[in-house]
Amino acid sequence: MDADQTLTIDGSAVVTGTNSLVIDGSLESDGNLNIIGGAGDDTLTGGAGNDSIDGGGGDDIVDGGLGDDTYIASAGNDTITTGDGNDMLTFGVEDTVYGSRIEDADSDGTADDLVLSYDFFDGTDYIYSTATILNQTVAADALYEMKFDADEDGALDTFRVATTMSAAGQAGRWAMAGTDTGETITGSDQGDVIRGNAGDDTIQGGLGDDFLEGNAGDWVFYDDATGSGVTVDLAAHFEGYASMTFADANPDTITAYVGAFVDSVGNNLQAGTQITISDSQFNNGTYTVASTSADGSVVTLSAGDALTAEGPVDASFTGTSAVASGGGLGNDTLIGIENVEGSSYADTLIGDGGANRLTGLEGGDQIFGAAGDDTIDGGEGNDVITGGQGSDIAVFSGVKTGYGITADGIEITVTDTDTTERDEGTNLLYGIETLRFTDDGTPDNPVSSLGLGMGSTYTGGTGADTYSGGTANNDIYYASGGNDTLTLTGGGNDG
Q1: CB-hemisphere CA count at 13 Å for 437?
Q2: Which domains can be identified in the chain, with CATH numbers?
Q3: Other CB atoms closer than 10 Å to residue 490's CB: what's the count?
Q4: Confidence class of residue 415 from pLDDT cuts 50, 70 and 90?
Q5: Please, what is the Cα angle at 117 between 114 and 119, to 5 degrees?
Q6: Using CA atoms, how far apart are residues 210 and 214, in angstroms rounded to an integer?
Q7: 278-335 residue pLDDT tens
Q8: DSSP letter string over 245-289?
Q9: If you ran DSSP here, which 8-state letter would residue 3 be given?
């Protein structure tokens, strides 16, 4: 059989009653198979092509083999082993799903199996059944996506469960959520809702006014900006809620917690390969998704954890959030994000009270660490870096001998004198305690050890603090709450 041909094997036409059927197409290395089981407990195996397998009735054992295979849900309790390729479980446009339950199970000794229990109407009867997809966290064996007609509009909706968390180039708004492992999550050209959850995630919202929520270790990247730099202000927190509208004619009600999101535009839902969804109902336009923690207990939500939308109104985050704009990428709302990478243009990056990691890439950037122990990399170009309160580190990509380091008052100038591999330009540093180079053994150089005549940095508390300047060096004072007193004595340029 040629690679572009399809062979149909219809067991339902030759086996009557509930007799079992065995069809093994594993030796077929070319072409595609269309395998249809009967009403019994069948064992159906695909080949190396892009096969379509419908178990029919009964409790079937199905293995798609290699290729991008499609498994068609049917009556019975089926067990499915997926292989290499982007495999799909579909209910078909003619089958309307009235209710479903998605959960982890331990059917083969592995807690990463995906169990889908579903109710659908096949045109004649209402059918309740289950499908178990084995070894869901093994990349080669993971189901790529499921398709179903949850809202009875005649179009298949998508539930993606693969490691590829990307809606780039796809139509409509997307809502995506990572798992406890680190994912790379990329939004579409519309306004998306993206949550990293646990794990060190890399998040790109793309175009549109996005909502991006992360945790410690997550990065938000803006390296796809066009024409101008971005401004990201993590310190511009505001209390209350931020919202985006999912315009939709259908009166959907959506509640999503940690582990999964649903949006009502196109009914797109994504989750990572470690399925954390414990219960998911798709009942005639009403979607409810909940999650449990690893030990099976219900996750306790706090401010900022829950996304709730009642269509056609708003998706709302409660708690505090920050803002990002410019670069032709829309105006984003950032929640719980501590790490930001800018664009190839002149960016303005502002940290918050946490331990931020801020990277400017190319362009003459202005980067402010604010409070917290920040790590700041200006990248190429002539950058101005202000550490702010805390013990801050300025990062450079070469060895120390490739830079000229001088000080004037409270200002440190670091000039890249070796531009054979990079050009980090001339950088002005304020309130930086450590310079980090790439030298083996001693990459970190405390400013106080460089003999630059720099003074000390003092940070007050919330009470009435008293500061007294030294006799020669240039000291920096950060006052906090309270009625503070500053006494300057002797020389030095104190600020």
Answers
A1: 19
A2: 1-151 (no CATH), 346-452 (2.150.10.10), 456-487 (no CATH)
A3: 11
A4: very high
A5: 150
A6: 13
A7: 333 333 333 333 333 333 322 222 222 222 222 222 233 333 456 666 666 666 667 6
A8: E---SS--EEEE-TT----SSTT-EE--SS--EEEEEEETTEEEE
A9: T
